[in-house]
Amino acid sequence: MVFSTALITSKSSHLLPSAFSRSFRVPPNAAIQPNTMHQTNILTFIDIGANLLDLMFKGNYNGSDKSHHPPDLDNVLQRSFDAGVQKIIITSGNLEEAKSALALARTHERLFTTLGVHPTRCSEFETYPEGPDGYLAALKEVLADGTRDGKIVAIGECGLDYDRLHFCDAETQKRYFEAQFELAKDANLPMFLHLRAAADDFLDIVHRRVDDFPAGVVHSFDGTASELESILKIEKLDIGLNGCSLKTEENLSVAKLVPVERLHFETDAPWCDIRPTHAGAAWVKSKLATKDKKKYEAGCLVKGRNEPCNIRQVFEVVAGIKARENQGSDAAEKKEEKEEGKEAVAEELCRAVYNNSLSMFFSKR
């Protein structure tokens, strides 16, 4: 994922910023409305990773101060609820984001958050005025606050990213990735993990600290079949798939190898959408109207900005490649019976993945 340089911040993790309370209007107990993308509401989802603090949801794009449209997170969330999303876990990537994400999560019963430091931001441990120990202590303070009401449900996003060493060198990433296992151990929370081009070092650290966390998800996984096999050998680790996991035919061949019982869905919104040029697009059925940000309409998605409602598309792609994998020589079967069978299998997949995420992140609730 990519981070904006400007952050939405709050002065205290105990206070709700007035900007959130003014702009967020979805009723806390809002019932799910008839789905606009499917004829049935039987499918339900947990988006285990959405970057709801991103400035795109306030109308600002590409780091610009120019606002293309009013803040529209309320519309974004309502669309997700209409699409069957029951819970969304906001991804935080540093101390200030953890505070802001916790404040936002407290505005709605379906919102939750992670707490942790993204690998590209691990230098913040060393530039913090009170030093690395002070930064870790500050994280623990927010963590203690957020676990009291169950709004912080995972430690992360943390891990290693060797594709972007220009943001933070490998040694600093490794040092403070390992330090964050202390947070998971103290709170007994699962880990929301980031891995890019660093599988050997990542697995080495996880193996060393495997007794310090109860479970975890390697999110936005786009690695090789060999890397997947190595990760799955660690019984505590599951795999999160989003649009970035489904770009190429090679991605699809790896994604179909993920056992259903180890699988989670996510969007990584506003990033990682499934685009028409992606291999996974062939399986997408659910599509909502989009408009360019310069022609913004409240009832439409913004072109190029992913939203949690699109988690249905991730499900559809995975269901499609799993069905392709499992279909045998059934030419004699009637087409209608085959389609009904595929739908039943897809619904079973959706329920299984929902329960995986419910069990990992919300079993304490």
Describe this structure in words.
This protein has 12 helices and 10 strands. Strand 2, helix 3 and strand 3 (111-115) form a beta-alpha-beta unit. It is 37% helix and 13% strand. The longest helix is centred in the last third of the chain and has 28 residues, at 335-362. With 365 residues, the protein is of the alpha/beta class. It has helices at 18-23, 73-82, 95-105, 124-127, 131-148, 170-179, 181-187, 199-208, 225-232, 249-255, 311-326, 335-362; strands at 45-50, 85-90, 111-115, 152-161, 191-196, 216-218, 237-241, 263-265, 290-291, 301-302. The two termini are 28 Å apart. It has an 8-stranded parallel sheet with strand order 1-2-3-4-5-6-7-8, with helices on both faces. A two-stranded parallel ribbon has the order 9-10. The protein is globular and about 65 Å long.
